[in-house]
Amino acid sequence: MKLNLFSTILIAAAALALPIGASAGTNLNLDTGAAVGSGGDIGYTGSGIAPQGNAALFPTGAGGAVAFAEYSQAILSELGAAYTKTAITGSSLVVNEVIAVQTNGGNYAKLLITAVSSASISLQYQTYGGANASGTVTLTAGSSGGSGAPTITQILNNYGLVPAGFTNSGIAQGSLFIIKGSGLADPSAPAVLQSSGSPGLQTTLYGASVKVTVGSTITVPVFYYALASQLALVMPSNTPVGSAQVTVTYNNQTSSPYAIQVVASAMGFDAYYGGGVGSAVATNNATGLTVGTSTTGYNYTTAVPPGTTIVLWGSGLGADPTRDTTYSTSNINQIQGLAHIYIGGIDAPILYQGPSGYPGVNQVNVTVPAAVTPGCNVALVGVSSSGVPTNFLSLPVGTGVCVDPTTGATGTQLQNGATLTNSNTGFVGLAQSTSSNGTVAIAEGVFESQTVSASSTGGGSVSVGGCVVGQTGAVSGGSTPTPTGLDAGTITVTGPNGTATLAVATKGDYFVSPLPSGFLNGGGTYTFNGSGGADVGKFSVALTFPNPPLVWSNTAADGTITRGSGATFNWSNGASGSYVIISGSSSATNGAFGSFTCIAPVAAGTFTVPAYVLSALPAGTGTASLSDVSSYTTFTATGINSGIGYGSVTQGINVIYN
């Protein structure tokens, strides 16, 4: 076994959020549609949407304009006990999120987030009752005042970036972690990594210092870098395990204490594009990395062949006092922080886990099982002996350029997409959804341009046989790019049972909801035709709508899920050769929101979501669904970089996650 030394620590300073624009107030009265300075039904604080008075909220999910249009007064009223007085905070506030509201006037309303940053939020809203108010508004964040002392907003594992509120969000002894906030260090400090060569990393940098207090014990971390908005440090290995208070001191002023949980082990793996999601940084065990060069390794166009031993990088395996401050290759011993590495759902042999030589940086050498089904986003996750998972990443597995069996996407397409500054995309689809509110059949089209964040590439995607988890917490990681709709002209869909014309909800968003009765009966081939518009050229694409419809056969058993026991989903029917997407989500009163997505062949008839996947969700109320998805069909048109279409049949239920 070759011990490779990590050459470049991939730590990126967070970009500062910029204001979106002015507004008339910080709060919104949904019964009248008025933006106000205080009161109303909701208020924006910069870190979340908070209900005011007796108003209550429920985040329905990032469904965009189509979901916003579908939430009728009847559906909003049926949510009942799902409404809470808990603020919707942090990175669960995303563009296209739809939020249901019970107003102070006893009415129901819905919100669609169209832009969000730490300075302001833009919303589309509609109220049922009162003045039946509707329109758009931008709210500015309420002022927090402050004395100029440092402010801590988040503390995270540098690589996993799992937000607070989850079982896998602790900061491990000996790990590399970051503190986000404002006024943390000299604003003119350069974004330069400090050397861990002798005499080692220092306890003060650019005027900043940090203390960690657990009970009566105080430890002092050392710095990799210090910026006004973010610090990167190593948690001392002798920090006691338990509830801790962290403070930052700069310019003779000390921040308010910030609570974290110090744990023995909480591994976070490095992501190829950063952000804690998507493809993992994986290198060849035989060649490693060359000191002083950029990170090289496996990627979408150089996939990992099954049976290959690779090296994964990250931090959080556990205490390593030999390397708390200084680079060292002496006393290299394994740190058994992980009991399993699952690749494509298969337990992979771990050959080595422990120090890389650099303070806080760990490596794990693991062999990709020969039985793994190749794909571009093969699930990858580590699990401790107590069942606590790492962040959820993926690997491109195959020979040369990867090919994903579920979508047909190639590694070349995915790699090229990650290098775009702006991406213009098109989507058309047919969907039939059954829930407690009945069955709805829709046709939709979404054409938009959006700034590409390479850090999100591959995030949320998973190849057949595996699962991926998304976790958002109570604090936002910054502004969210706002997509710009693209005019694609008039869009129609023609199938065995007639033709329907899609209406324009907003520029770039097209839908028919509901479709005419019987329009999707019998499934088959449906053709979308676009006349072409100001931004997108003429196109035609045929897709298949699944038939016979999928039947979820154990919905009663899945209505209550014990996260530590896993959950089995059984189904029958479904289109031959298609795939079933198993998904679910839950939210907690502390603002934590988690979701999972797994994919299995329809022919399997069953899939068990592992306990390590469900344990990454918070306990609380939520949903689960099964979707039979046809093969993806690609199409081209002038004005877009890529276009896809597919049909899906979905059955959803409400779930209690214990």
Walk me through the structure.
- There is one protein chain.
- The chain is built from 4 helices and 49 strands.
- The protein is mainly β and 658 residues long.
- It folds into 4 domains: 27-140, no CATH class; 151-263, Sandwich (Immunoglobulin-like), CATH 2.60.40.10; 268-397, no CATH class; 420-483 and 542-658, no CATH class.
- The strands form 9 sheets. Strands 31, 32, 33, 34, 37, 38, 42, 44, 45, 47, 48 and 49 form a 12-stranded mixed sheet that branches. Strands 12, 14, 15, 16, 19, 20 and 21 form a 7-stranded mixed sheet that branches.
Outline of the structure:
This protein has 4 helices and 49 strands. The chain is mainly β and 658 residues long.
Mean pLDDT: 86
- From the spread of the alpha carbons, the general shape counts as globular
Poorly predicted spans: 1-24, 143-147, 289-295, 476-480
Largest sheet: 12 strands, mixed
SS element count, helices: 4
**Straight-line N-to-C gap:** 42 Å
Count every beta strand, where a strand is a DSSP E run of 2 or more residues: 49
Q: Give the DSSP E fraction (strand runs of 2 or more residues).
A: 35-45%
> What oligomeric state best describes the polypeptide chains here?
single chain
Overall tally of domains? 4
Helix content: under 10%
**How does the helix and strand content classify structurally?**
mainly beta
- State Rg: 25 Å
Keyword list:
Immunoglobulin-like; mainly beta; 658 residues; 4 domains
